[in-house]
Structure formats: C-alpha cells, structure tokens
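Fold this complex.
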Amino acid sequence: MPIRSVFIANRGEIALRVIRSCRELGLRTVLAVSEADRQSLPARHADRAVCIGPARAADSYLRIDTLVQAALGTGADAVHPGYGFLSERAAFARRCEEAGLLFIGPTPAQIDAVGDKLAARAAALEAEVPVVPGGAVHSQAEAAALAARLGTPLLIKAVGGGGGRGMKRVEHLPDLPMALDMAAGEAGAAFGDARVYLERCVEHARHVEVQVLGDGRGNVLHLGERDCSMQRRYQKLIEETPAPLLAESLRARLHAAALRFAARLRYRGAGTVEFLVDAARGEFYFLEMNARIQVEHPVTEQVTGLDLVAAQLRIAAGDGLPLSQSALRFDGCAIECRINAEDPTQDFQPSPGRVRRADWPQGPGLRVDTHIAAGSMVPPFYDSLLGKIIAHGRSRESARARLCAALAATRIDGVHTNLAFQAGLLADAQFARGGIDTGFLARRGS
Amino acid sequence: MSLTAKDVAEILKALDASSFDTLELELNGVKLQLRRGGGGGATPVRTLAAGPAEPPTSPAAQPAPSTAPVEVPPGTVPVAAPLLGIFYRAPRPGEPPFVEVGSQVEAGTIIGIIEVMKLMNTVRAGVRGEVAAIAATNGELVEHGETLLFVRPA
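Structure:
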C-alpha cells in the first residue's frame, strides 16, 4: 500500500527528523501538536499542524483516540510514532491498523512480545541468545531462593518496561525483601504492572546495541552496533559507532545474535537489540529490544549512508529492505552528544524556558538534529532534549576531535544546558581511549 | 457547585491585581481560562455525555481546511472546540442543527457534538447571548481550541 500522507504522533527533534525524510520521499506531513507546541519549529515545517489538546502529554500526545481521529480527519494514510510517547504501545499500533492507517513500526504482537521483558528473555533463550542469569519471582520466598542462587549484587527489574524505572540494586541479601516491595511499587506506578524479576548484576559491562531492520517476512539486516556506555542513571549521554576496542569475533557474535532474535520474531521495521557486554571475558547478554527508532540512530546513518526513517517508511509501505547485508558498507566512525536543557550544577534539574540564542555548529562531518532555534520555547511538560550533535570522521579520534570543536562552537542562551558537562566527558582521557563501561560516570562523579 | 457570573468577576479582579498573565481553573468539569490582554476566547463548558443513538455520517476523509486565525465579528466572543474531533451541528443526520445564526443560547445550551472515535462529546456555549456566526463546518475535523461559532453576549 503506497503512503502519500504521514501523520506524526510526536514532537521535538524526532518530529522534525521524520518530516525531513517524508519531504525527501515526496510525502505530505501532518503533525500532531499540543497547545504548548503550536509555534514549535516542527509545527512550522510540517505541511499541516493539528492541535490535539492541552500541553500535558496525558491530554495530548498520549491520547490514542484523539490521535487516530486526527490522522483520519486530516487524510493521513500512515502514522509515525517517533520514540517515547505511544511508540511502543501495542494498543496504539492496533488502533491505527483497525482504523485503516499504516503504523510505521512493528506489528502489535511484536511490540507486545518485546515489551514484556520476561517474554523477551524467553524469546532470547529460544533464539539461543544468552541472557543474564535470573528469572521471574512471584513471592518473597521465591525471590529469596533465586537471589541465593544468583548471589549479590543483583538487580530487581520491572517486567512491564525499562528506562531504569522500577529498577533496584541489591548489595546484601537481607535488603532484598524491602527492595522488592519498593521496586514492585515503582513498577506498578510507572507501567501499571507491578511484576518484577531478578537478574545478576553484571559489573563493568558495556552497553552495546545492534540496529536491525526487518521486512516483516523473516528477512532481517543489521546495520552495525552502537556503544552507549556513557550513561547517567541509565540515561544515555554519548553514543558512538562502531563500538571501540571490541574484538572482531565478539562484534560478529553480537550482530549474529541480534539477527537471530529479530528473525525469529519476523520483525518488521527498525529496531534495536540491546546487550550488556563483558569485553574482557568476551561474553555478552541480551538486555531488551527497543521496537522503535532510537534517539541515537544518526550515528548509524552517518557511517552507513542510509536514511533509517526512510527505511521505516518503505518497509511500512511493503517495499522491503533498502539493500542486502552484503551490499552494506560501513564508513568511518561517528559519535553523538545529546544536548539537554538541564543544569549540571543543580543535579541536572530540567531547565525549561525561552531560548534567546541558539548557535548550532556547522562544518564538514557535522550533523545537528534539533528543534531549537533562537526564540524557541522549551516547555516544562516534556523531555529536555534540545538536540543532538553528531560528528563523523575517518577514525574515532578524528570524530571525537571534531565533536569537541563542535561543542566549543555551540552556544545556547536562555536555558541551562549540559554543553560544558558533555565537553568535559568528550575530553576525558578514559573516554578518549575508548571502551568505558556503564559505571564510568558514577565512579568519576558528576 | 458551579461558577456564577459574580464569581468570575471576582476571579477576574483577583487576576488583574496579581502579577500573573493567565489563570486556569477547573471545578467539577467547568474549566475557566483567563488571559490578561484578551488574547484568548471563552472556553466552553466541557462535558462528556453519551452520544446519540445513531452516530452521524462518517467523516469525510479529506483534509480539513487549515485553521487560519478567524476574524472575530465585533462585539462577539468565540466558542472554541474543547477537544479535537469531528464537529457535528445536529444530533444526527437530517435533523435540524442545535443552533443557527440568531439562536439565543444560555451557557449550558448544547451547540454541537464533537466525535472522537465514535465517542460523542456535547459542546456547550459557555456564554449567554445570541449566535452571531457559525465558523466550523459540519462533518469536518476541528482542532483542539478551534473556533466553532461566535456569540454576541447578552
């Protein structure tokens, strides 16, 4: 089914990113905007912006019925969910399909299959992809028995979703009962699902994820991996491809595992299979699959020359994969920095407000994905991502040096940003060497 | 409880004396939005009511006209759509519209229906007066906050 008009159920930089690819493909765009986003840069770039409700996301970007009605009423034939909001809600994908709209993403069944973290673990095992030792617990007694077998430290995680919510680290077994209650409470509040499971805590692990594309008919393709180990409280700050200082055999095993997992699901669209990697031991474990386009997708685009959003649109339209695995070439290295409106001196408190000045960097090998220009408003209702600066170079070091220079040339006035903090991380000797693990920032101290 | 005209006048006075530019108040389904400088229009009372037995005809799958700022007839206030959906002027196809130009309305008078995925939401005038002009088209998509009609307050 050909797509002529795409309804974008999202905001911010990803809305503008989707608009850009749609325009290149000659597709009309309709953007959903809340009252707070009427004057946003994406709203001005879309062929049409339609106000779906008040600023609060629960009254606008999270309203399935309103979005589907808006898509139908504006003559759209497909819906792009972006990331966050409703992008991984099977119910939204299902409602779109029922209304005769193409959902640009996986099938509702696939979203469910990877959204339930325990089901995803089981699917990984069936695809012969290693998972972190652990499992479901239904009672305190069961948890105590499993914890004794796993040993400490261990992690309690939510079955219903990721992102660090409902996650608790347990250092000593006597702390387990209380941590379990707290995790279940948090998980219930965040995901409406209080189920939790236990996993052994893999120390000094790196976060490496593999980008995949599937045509929904069993053909899958990997677009290499991304290392996202630079994290603060499970939030990614810097992402890069390829993962530095990784043995080629381990890299190949990661790619193969991601393909097995995606192929078994007959995955449709763009997705990311996340792993914890113990590079020293040459071991890795499946973490979860993200059934959406990701914030950090540009680094993959810079080294492959592919447009991932265009690939999503083509797959949704039934045109299949953009190329074959053997035709894919990887060129150089790319690193991305997330620039957030937050104040590192105040424990990274969000800093909404009016941006008075926004000088984004320009130059060879640089790319900026942003929705912020001088005069833009950063509303207090949504995430604090202002934009992403991506540098591409022949070597990792040239990309890193380019990104350092780019950050120094960036100036955002009117709101606090993490620019200086990010510049410090990029210049850090350990990061420059490569191969840091996810505990790096916590040990270094902010 | 509900808001009387006197209550609103008192709230207006309080807002005027304060350093704030906008005030939003929600009480038992009554939503009051006040803006210093007269930027916005009256917000109608929002209620969620059961829909008519038969849903109106299905919406046309054509792009609705973009919502360019509508010119406000002098001496009138706009009645805005409280939510996005398909706007219907009558309870069901073939029946007379809820209101026409010249109709007298009370704050609680139903002036139309907005359909969101088969759920019918009645829209009330929110102001007492005479309907001066109809702005929205029957059977077409209206955005959240789009002007449906203008009322000349009594």
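Chain B touches chain A at residues 59, 61-64, 66-67, 83-86, 115-117, 119, 140-141, 143-146 (CB under 8 Å).
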